[in-house]
Amino acid sequence: MSVVLVRTLLKSFVLRKMAAYESKRRALDAAIEKEGAFMIVMLLRLSPAMPLAPANALLGLTSVGLLPYTLGTLARPLGLGPKPHDRPPTMVALTTSLRCGPDG
C-alpha cells in the first residue's frame, strides 16, 4: 500500500524528503536491474539496517513493480527465499551503503 501511495499521492513530498538519498535510490535501482525486484525486496526485508518505512518510501521511487514488491514482502514470513547468509554480494554492498546515510 505504501509503495502505491508514494508513487501517486505522496510522490512530490517523498522526493523532497529523500533528495539527499538520490545516490542510494540509483544504487537500489541498479541492484534491482541486476538481481531482480523480487530478490531485492525480499533481502531488504531481511536487513535490520533498513527500517520498513524508509525502505517502502525508497522502493516507491524505484522501478519495482507491485507484484514483486508484494511477493518479496510476503516471502520471508512464509519461510521462503534465501537465509540471511545467502545474500548476493550486491545486496551486502547495498545494505552497507544504506546504513552509512545520505553522504555515503
Written overview of the protein:
The longest helix is centred in the N-terminal third of the chain and has 14 residues, at 22-35. The termini are far apart. The protein has one domain (2-99). The chain has helices at 2-7, 11-17, 22-35, 37-46, 52-60, 66-75, 89-99. 64% of the residues lie in helices and 0% in strands. The protein has 104 residues and is mainly alpha-helical. The chain contains 7 helices and no strands.
Write the layout of secondary structure elements.
Layout: H1 2-7, H2 11-17, H3 22-35, H4 37-46, H5 52-60, H6 66-75, H7 89-99
Helix pairs in contact: 3-4, 3-7, 4-6
Mean pLDDT: 78
Proportion of beta-strand residues? under 5%
Count of helical regions: 7
Distance between the termini: 29 Å
Please summarize what this structure is.
Helices cover 64% and strands 0% of the residues. The chain has 104 residues and is mainly α. It has one domain (2-99).
What keyword list fits this structure?
mainly alpha; 104 residues; single chain
